Amino acid sequence: MRQVWIPRIGGPDVLEVREAADPEPRAGEVRVRVAASGVNFADCLARMGLYPDGPALPAVVGYEVAGEIDRIGPGVETLTEGTRVVALTRFGGYADTVIVPMVQVLPIPHNLSFEQAAGIPVNYLTAWIMLVWIGNVHPGERVLVHAVAGGVGQAALQICRWRGATVLGTASAGKHARLLESGVAHCIDYHTQDFETEISRITGGEGVDIVLDAVGGRSFAKSYRCLGPLGRLFLFGVSSFAPGTTRSIPAAIKGLLTLPRYKPISLMNDNRGVFGVNVGHLWERSELLARMLADIIQLCGDGVLSPVIDHVFPFARAGEAHAYLQARKNFGKVLLVP
Ligand SMILES: NC(=O)c1ccc[n+]([C@@H]2O[C@H](COP(=O)([O-])OP(=O)(O)OC[C@H]3O[C@@H](n4cnc5c(N)ncnc54)[C@H](OP(=O)(O)O)[C@@H]3O)[C@@H](O)[C@H]2O)c1
């Protein structure tokens, strides 16, 4: 099999393709021949040595793949060889062959391509947990989505539209026209505009009901101040700790020092909630994740949700995929194909 390795901490060009023997599934596992693997911002953080949850390097990262089962291990009765599936992998998804416990594998409908399917798990599960499972977004509510043109951002936009909520989003200016066309009510260019001031202006001082913030640092405190009564703030990432493609310790320290502290009495009196979400820490709850993923796949199959695939890079150009994401060029999901 072929795998994309991160051999050491570094820039996008450290990624390299290596050959290895094909693995065999053990009891309760299946082997998937991968057609497409999802690329996530966390993979870039792992490459930069900025991801405490990442595997020790050298390593093969990758949380999600889509492909076809070509071998099943003993005791697997619910899945068969030849089934088209999507799978959660932690880690090892940057490979043309993966071994996965059957509980992390779900069949996909025929009207979904492998590329669309590989773009579903991480982005949609993250957005689903925040907006549906915990956040219970209501029709007519206003939701501020940071990096709304990104992978999680696009999943969040679609879930909000399905639930009848209004999305306000931050993104680089070049993406605004397409975002407005795809249903974002107001776009804020976070490079040139202060999003807190803009949210206050747009909402006439009322604030929003939900904020999804993976920027981190100062942004968390500002996002909290954007909430109206009964507002929910979700903290799920720290992109601002990694402004470039190589590790910057000063940027990470600055980010840590500007993190806010939330006070229980203020939360009570403000009628606001602050939630942290890390899908990677829910791996022990694979059955619950699979249940949510099944609902998401059903909605994708029905055309209610529709993964936005931006760019597909071959394994040999995996470094370019990381650089593309970190240069803020993507609109939706970036994938690797063997
Ligand atoms: N906690 C969890 O379970 C979980 C799960 C998935 C993702 N996440 C987090 O959610 C965030 C989004 O992840 P994603 O995989 O969907 O990536 P993504 O949003 O597609 O990431 C790239 C986009 O983020 C925006 N961005 C903002 N700050 C950036 C920075 N410092 N460097 C590069 N891009 C930046 C850029 O778009 P614009 O400039 O247009 O805004 C860029 O195009 C990341 O922080 C990730 O770690 C967390």
Q: Which series of helices and strands comes N to C? A: EEEHEEEEHHEHEHEHEHEHHEHEHE
Distance linking N and C termini: 10 Å
- Biggest sheet descriptor: 7 strands, mixed
Low-confidence stretches: none
The amount of beta strand, in percent, is 15-25%
Q: How would you briefly describe this protein structure?
A:
The protein is α/β, with parallel strands linked by helices. It has eleven helices and 15 strands. The structure holds NADP nicotinamide-adenine-dinucleotide phosphate.
Summarize the structure in words:
This protein is α/β, with parallel strands linked by helices and 338 residues long. 30% of the residues lie in helices and 25% in strands. It has helices at residues 41-47, 114-118, 121-134, 151-163, 176-181, 195-202, 218-225, 249-257, 264-270, 286-301, 318-326; strands at 2-5, 16-19, 29-39, 64-72, 84-88, 97-101, 105-107, 142-145, 166-170, 186-188, 208-213, 227-235, 273-276, 309-314, 333-337. Helix 3 (121-134) packs across helix 4 and helix 3 (121-134) packs across helix 10 (286-301). The longest helix is centred in the C-terminal third of the chain and has 16 residues, at 286-301. The protein is globular. The mean pLDDT is 97. Residues 40-42, 122-123, 126, 147, 149-153, 171-172, 175, 214-215, 236-237, 239-240, 242-243, 277-280, 325-326, 328, 330 line the site of NADP nicotinamide-adenine-dinucleotide phosphate (NAP).
